[in-house]
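Quick note —
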Amino acid sequence: MEYLSFPWPELEGKNFPIRHQEIRSGADFYRAMVEKASKCNGEVVLALRRPDGRLLLHTKPFYPPHTWRLPSGGIRIGESPEEAACREVEEETGLSARPERLLGVLTYTLRSEAGEVSFASVLFLFRTEGGRPAPRDTGERIGGYRWVKPKGLYRVAAHLRRLPLPWRDWGYFRAPAHDFVAAVLG
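Predicted structure written out below.
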């Protein structure tokens, strides 16, 4: 089994929820996750909250229709999760936002006929006054944004779990972070 260690000493001694997900995937998604795990120390998932409590979602033009999700991005080697989260907020939204708190860590074990790989998502809550989000990194290819109530994330997760092939494994991987944030903030 390939295992992603958690090289984040800044998280040691902090009290936050940790959840684990076991996901069965096809060989293609497994290989993509092995490659992703080799290039970064996990990822951050961003819950950007306006004063009215709504959270930011984004979509990309190549996603299946009506597919929205929380912004996320890789934690670069040598970068702390909070540094990655702040960088990703700027790159993906351009919004002025400040970190409020660490919501928790979601760990995954993905299994396929090709093997197993572990991965982790560190979830952060940011406060923003809102405004008009716009990506600063054009490589992100973000096609739109919308704001939803925290409980709306359960519907987002359900949609992700219903995605057809070839998106099914990706949807199953993305869905738990939405359930996690909804449970913590809902």
